[in-house]
Design a protein that fits this description.
The chain has 267 residues and is mainly beta. The chain contains two helices and 19 strands. The longest helix has 9 residues, at 169-177.
């Protein structure tokens, strides 16, 4: 079942929780990448396509560690978005489909790197089962310079209208309690996603940001992140940056993760 919504329907349902003062045009439809098996519209014969991409362990599982060449996904027949692992295991960066949930994030570390701890029923946005987790960042001290990205597999350009994001359980535990390398987030701390769009020729189209942490206020529920300001893109890269107190001698101490779901694309 392909999830295609008219923008007027989605706008009417959502205006109570986010600003409607942008340049939206109701002349388009939205197709939504939900990561739910019932919405898969592609040609894969794998039963439960999205479920099959959830590893059997959050850390050191067979799918995300040791088999990186085979871990990728493609929202065929719907948004056309695709992702794939970078050239090493998940610790080096990538996107992992997940259904892991931890009611209490206290004590969550890398062994629970694919979990979220929202209050709503269901791990994903709007009570759904599946979502996706990004791991990876790049800064001046990084030995790698490649960021995880969402791309249109066809190479065409489309406007990605928005996605829904939330901190993972691992990140929430760090921000709240700190770890062996860093103290907890303080009154002046911040931690944010930076999305950068690129057109089919590889030219940058723009950037937009979303704060996962501002002081001691952390994003603990699925929250809309507007991306339409990037314009028509063939690829969007996502980086993570934090305030100075979240860095150490070897780069970012905060775990470089965030969860995302329900990526809406204009057609």
């Amino acid at each position: 079942m392909k999830k295609i919504l008219t923008f007027a329907m989605l706008l009417a349902a959502a205006c109570g929780s986010w600003s409607c003062s942008d340049d939206h045009d109701d002349a388009f439809k939205l197709r939504v990448l939900t990561f739910e098996d019932a919405d898969y519209g592609g040609s894969s014969t794998v039963k439960g396509y999205w479920s099959s991409l959830v590893d059997d362990a959050q850390y050191n599982g067979a799918l995300l560690y040791g088999n990186t060449a085979g871990y990728n996904w493609y929202d065929e027949g719907n948004t056309g978005l695709a992702s794939g692992m970078l050239d090493a295991d998940f610790w080096n960066g990538g996107h992992a489909v997940s259904d892991y949930y931890e009611a209490d994030f206290t004590g969550c570390d890398y062994n629970k790197q694919l979990a979220v701890s929202t209050a709503a029923n269901g791990a994903g946005h709007n009570g759904s089962k599946h979502f996706c987790v990004q791991n990876g960042y790049v800064d001046a001290s990084s030995y790698k310079q490649e960021l995880p990205a969402l791309r249109f597999k066809s190479g065409e350009e489309h406007v990605i209208d928005h996605m829904w994001v939330v901190n993972t359980s691992y990140v929430l535990d760090f921000l709240t309690n700190g770890n062996a390398f860093s103290s907890a987030a303080g009154a002046d701390s911040w931690f944010k996603i930076i999305a950068t769009g690129y057109d089919a020729a590889g030219a940058e189209t723009g950037t937009c940001e979303f704060f996962l942490c501002e002081g001691r206020t952390f994003v603990t529920e699925w929250t809309r992140f507007d991306l339409w300001q990037l314009g028509a893109v063939a690829r969007v890269e996502f980086n993570l940056k934090g305030s100075d107190d979240l860095y150490g001698d070897y780069g970012l101490n905060a775990p470089a993760y965030f969860a995302f779901d329900d990526v809406a694309v204009r057609f």
